[in-house]
Design brief:
Dihydrodipicolinate Reductase, domain 2; eight-stranded mixed sheet; 26% strand; Rossmann fold; 2 domains; single chain; alpha/beta
Length: 335
């Protein structure tokens, strides 16, 4: 019988942190052992965070433990799903890596650039490594375009434009409080913006060199009251000379079939992604990138699990990608 990797969860029900352990379980290659949660892990969806975390553990037939240290120090646990708020996330990622635990987390890696750097330094000396969920490069249309770029089909990338907005108002049930605003390095510029920014980073394939960014409060009084933006625009210059423009936010109105829009200009061609469809010029060839979301995520997490036993397999989004992302949020000029 093939071994199943055992998972421990640090932080349950925190706003902006998906339950990545559920996706790990969906691969059929893991089982959940322990859960730790409570109010100290960040603003979240439970009125009583401790009660909610205990109910979550019971729902998934896992044991509830009082301290993250119980998970970090458990020799039976292979993977730690760190779902705490960014303000305290880095410390648990670091401790898990120091104990040679593999880690999965949502974006971003932390609250500051220094924290993200420390996480990557811990990974460098650990026997284990991590995976950060974020970006639309995992989608078939974007993955196809990246493959074409790697084959040199469009020449050298010169410019990328990404537009990614979630529409239809504030996420149902979400309350952007001041506490939540203090626990992340930005509002929708982080929660939505990370996906657009990582997508641009993967398309260009070079380190970030300079960033001009504008974070705005255009639509929601509750975001402004929480000290968090609801819209952002980024102009990014990369080390290879390519530039990217990324606009992202949460719109109050509904746009039918709203999805990511991408334009890429290369020295030998041009590409456009509208939702799941990729068009490549010259020639106007169309690639239909429709996908099943559950199957796509299962493949993404299966690849991470396979990376544990095979050094030739790499997670689709690394902690090093998270460090580049954190540079945008914390290091460069904000106007």
């Amino acid at each position: 019988m093939t071994k199943k990797y055992k998972i421990g969860v640090i932080g349950v029900g925190v706003w902006g942190c998906h339950s990545l352990e559920r996706e790990l379980l969906n691969t059929g290659m893991c089982e959940l052992k322990s859960v730790c949660g409570g109010d100290e892990f960040g603003a979240g969806l439970y009125e009583d965070a401790l009660v909610g975390a205990k109910a979550y553990a019971q729902e998934l037939n896992a044991e509830f433990v009082a301290s993250p240290e119980d998970i970090i120090n458990d020799p039976e646990i292979d993977i730690v799903s760190v779902m705490s708020a960014p303000s305290i996330k880095a410390q648990w990622l670091i401790k898990a890596l120091q104990n040679d635990k593999y880690v999965v987390t949502d974006k971003p890696l932390g609250l500051t650039l220094e924290e993200a750097q420390a996480v990557c330094e811990a990974e460098d000396v650990s026997k284990a490594h991590g995976f950060m969920l974020g970006g639309y490069h995992i989608r078939p249309a974007v993955a196809k375009l990246i493959a074409l770029l790697e084959q040199g089909k469009l020449g050298e990338v010169k410019a990328v434009s990404v537009r990614l907005n979630f529409t239809g108002g504030v996420y149902p049930g979400f309350n952007p409080t001041k506490r939540w605003g203090s626990e992340i390095p930005g509002g929708e510029s982080v929660t939505i913006g990370s996906h657009g920014l990582i997508t641009a980073m993967k398309l260009v394939g070079a380190p970030i060199e300079e960033v001009f960014q504008v974070r705005k409060n255009d639509f929601y009084e509750q975001y402004e009251a929480a000290g968090a933006d609801d819209y952002a625009i980024y102009n990014v210059k990369f080390a290879n000379g390519a530039v990217a423009n990324v606009s992202t936010g949460r719109l109050p109105y509904r746009i039918p079939n709203e999805d990511i829009l991408v334009e890429l200009t290369g020295t030998e061609g041009y590409a456009q992604i509208t939702g799941t469809e990729l068009k490549v010029y010259p020639g106007g060839k169309i690639f239909d990138g429709q996908f099943n979301a559950s199957e796509l995520l299962r493949g993404v997490f299966t690849q991470f699990i396979n990376s544990i036993s095979d050094a030739n397999v790499k997670p689709l989004t690394s902690l090093k990608d998270g460090l580049e992302l954190q540079k945008i949020f914390n290091y460069y000029r904000i106007i």
